[in-house]
Amino acid sequence: MRLRLVAIPGVVLIAVAAAMWGTDPLLRKSILSVPASTIVFGEHVFLVLLTLPLLIPALRAVWAAGASYVVAAVVVGAGASGAATILFTQALQHDFVSAVVMQKAQPLVAVMGAAVLLGERPRPRFGWFLAAGLGGLWLVNQPHPLDPSARGLRAVLEALGAAVLWALGTVLGRYLIRRVSFEHVLALRFLFGLVASAVAVLALSAEWYAGARASAWILSLAVVTGLLALALYYYGLQRTPAVLSSLAELTNPAVLVVAGIYAYSIGLVWSQWLGFGIIVLVVTLLPIERRRVVAEAPPELVPAAASA
Length: 308
Fold this sequence. Notes:
The protein has helices at 2-6, 10-21, 24-28, 36-50, 52-65, 67-94, 96-101, 105-118, 126-141, 153-176, 182-203, 212-237, 242-248, 251-263, 270-296, 302-306. Helix 2 (10-21) runs parallel beside helix 14 and helix 4 crosses helix 12 (212-237). The protein is built from 16 helices and no strands. It is 78% helix and 0% strand.
């Protein structure tokens, strides 16, 4: 499996993983009446059980890496996996449109965070990719792009908080992978996400168990948008700077809107389909542009160019 994935550009794996996350509405539609903290807690119970053999080696690995890596693992798990997923699920329950619209903040936060925390400063030409991707995302999310709307302040703030935490998770995940294997990062993310979601269940006085039918859907979420998608994501992140990853992740809200057509009976106008096409084009051209940057770089600068 690993040998086959090596041949695929990391940015493509991240785009596929993000697209898988975009199928959330199809899976969550049947359990929107269940409290968000209960859903996320259930997901993390399944995820921790699925990665149980990796937990002890993962804890040893992150402890050996140093205190900053331990903090990063806690923030990625409790913040990006636990709190962010609860916030986004709640936003989705209140207002699907606003939840998706606010995801536009994620790549901007990730780019700034990567520059500050990781020293990843993309070449100027990648600014065009970012501008085109955000422009396409704006078209996808707004049926009337010149007259935008985002309904419900609570849904907006919840989705914005989720976007910021997910962006921080991208940056710190890239930081963790410098010293910790992607399998161990996965296990740590699920472990600390379980702790955070358990605290949320207690704080919100929510149910611990959602029932047999809802648990079956929660298991589907855990496997498809949890374990499989995150495994592809972290494997791709090993070879992809956080800046480029944030661009590839634009497939998430794009697919999210398209999935909403089926799940929430939302129709798309021509400008939204145009935006979706722009995002697909950007994600398709990203690995080609990156290979060209590496090919043009002098031999002694190839490692730096590969992370640009």
